[in-house]
Amino acid sequence: MSELSNILATLDRGEPFAAEQLLPLVYDELRRLAGQKLNQEAAGQTLDATALVHEAYLRLVGDQQFANRQHFFGAAAEAMRRILVDNARRKGRQRRGGTRNRVLLTDVPAITRDPDDLLAIDEALAALAKEDAEAAEVVKLRIYAGFSVEEAADALGISRASAYRQWTYARAWLRCRLDDMAES
After folding, report:
1. How open is the CA angle 33-39-44, to the nearest 5 degrees?
2. Were 182 and a residue from 22, 71, 101, 102 both cysteine, which residue would form a disulfide, CB within 3.0 to 4.6 Å?
3. Start-to-end CA span in the chain (Å)
4. SS3 of 111, please?
5. How far apart are CA 66 and CA 69, in angstroms?
6. How many domains would you assign to the chain?
7. Do the beta carbons of residue 26 and residue 4 sit within 8 Å?
8. The three-state (H, E, C) secondary structure of 60-101, written as one string
9. Which tens digit of pLDDT belongs to each residue from 151-175?
10. Are 111 and 144 in contact (CB under 8 A)?
């Protein structure tokens, strides 16, 4: 069992020193993920990579349990996604009634720069999760964690062929949903 797995198990048992040991092990990887996300955000972002990592970490070390390294980093990606979406919502409140722009998903995953687009994608992703949770998880790992399809398959414990099918399906589903949202 790796050192990270041992610390995650210790953290699950509620031992207070485990959280202190976990951060140095995962900090560089979390910072890299946060940097990727923020590089794709609009200029003038109020969050920086350090703040995003720290806020995500605080959300992670609560009462959540992690089965393994992949589960931890998947949860970290989800926490970062929620932080960015919450930040976009706060910004969106300042300019209520703004029109939504059409968002096209390309083969290269990237977080959109416009907070309104990010909110539209989050709303569509939530609807996809209700219809096909596994496809939504593949999308989250691809877009928000920067995973390849193969890495997403490994993290979810599914075959690569299934992950590619889920990714193709989810992209088409999200395109249709976002087109419908843009028209209304």
Report:
1. 125
2. 102
3. 52
4. coil
5. 8
6. 1
7. yes
8. HCCCCCCCCHHHHHHHHHHHHHHHHHHHHHHHHHCCCCCCCC
9. 889 888 999 999 999 999 999 998 8
10. yes
